[in-house]
Amino acid sequence: MAxxxxxxxxxxxxxxxxxxxxxxxxxxxxxxxxxxxPSDEAWKNRRPIFRAAPRxxxxxRVRTGQTAQMYYTSWGTHIAGIMQTVxxxxxxxxxxxxxxxxxxxxxxxxEHSDNPGQVRMRVGIDPAGGLNPFASTVIWSAERSVYDxxxxxFTVEVIATGPQATxxxxxxxxxxxxxxxxxxxxxxxxxIAGGTALSDSDxxxxxxxxxxxxxxxxxxxxxxxxxxxxxxxxxxxxxxxVETRYRGVEQGERxxxxxxxxxxxxxxxxxxxxxxxxxxxxxxxVRIGGVLTPAVSTGTGSTQPAPMSxxxxxxxxxxxxxxxxxxxxxxxxxxxxxxxxxxxxxxxxVGYSADDAGIGDLxxxxxxxxxPSAWPDPIIPWxxxxxxxxxxxxxxxxxxxxxxxxxxxxxxxxxPELG
Length: 419
Known about the structure:
The chain has 5 helices and 26 strands. The protein is mainly beta and 419 residues long. Helices cover 9% and strands 40% of the residues. Strand 25, helix 4 and strand 26 (391-395) form a beta-alpha-beta unit. Helix 1 runs parallel beside helix 5. It folds into 3 domains: 14-192, Galactose-binding domain-like (Jelly Rolls, Sandwich), CATH 2.60.120; 203-305, Immunoglobulins (Immunoglobulin-like, Sandwich); 319-409, no CATH class. 36% of the residues are buried.
């Protein structure tokens, strides 16, 4: 099948994006990155330098052709990548394949990444053609760390839902290294034969929890009216991949039913993704410690919340402000909030849970993130991804006394109206 992408091998001219000489990308491609926050440490969430990687300079960085796309941060981390939007036909089944690897090390030996910085890489497609790589509509491949050489590549499939689709190639090193260099080459977006979306009743994936609290088992059931082969389930949670226990398959009223079980250890969102031969990946999510009813996902890739009960809904709308402390903050930081007079004056909610900070059937929600750089992963992009309707305000304080002084004069302004 024909490749829908322009310049999939990153050959030919590289151009300075928006006239910036440090952001040189191949024709047909655009860069993206998470901007560094004022509260971030100097090494964290840096904007990468984008460059061509010619075969003549280092042949191991080019898979085929003469050039690959590279970008890097030196002694820093990033959440960044490249993207491209193409025209498609709604209902087409699309498969994205891309090859990438990282060179991540404090040494200058190009053959090996010594003690790499946990570079997480993945590729995704927004089947609606959106331009936000962190939107909930983006379907992602599995996340892997690939070092020093190209391997079998990253692959993901979706059903196009609009006249355009956007592909994203993403990397995110966890730790700063002298070299956190990323290389991409040979990207293919193709239409797969038979690419018509399944009807809503063809494949159903559902997550159910008796209590929806940590340590209470979650049952995952997948039903299909058609025979499926090589059925696999992957569950991810706030801390990464989650171990699942296969409970078997049986015949139900609407065909075959597969069941698994997993135990969530911490509060937060958990997503199950079902794959099998001949179908697009199907995902469904449940939020442990917050959401009251499971979600049902259909073969079209959309997630439909189950009917909501009245539990958890506010008696009346109000503006909730949550002061989110990092996991390492001790009781002296809580005492600083009390000493500032802000709690007594505003009656803000104070806690340590990012999910508690974001959830709520409220029109106005604000999260004050104390010392965002103290979180093990970038907390502000995480909040923006999982709770996009929450207004986020960051505060950096070097000590509890400093936090007390900041909160005494903090003015959040009028919160925005959120729909």
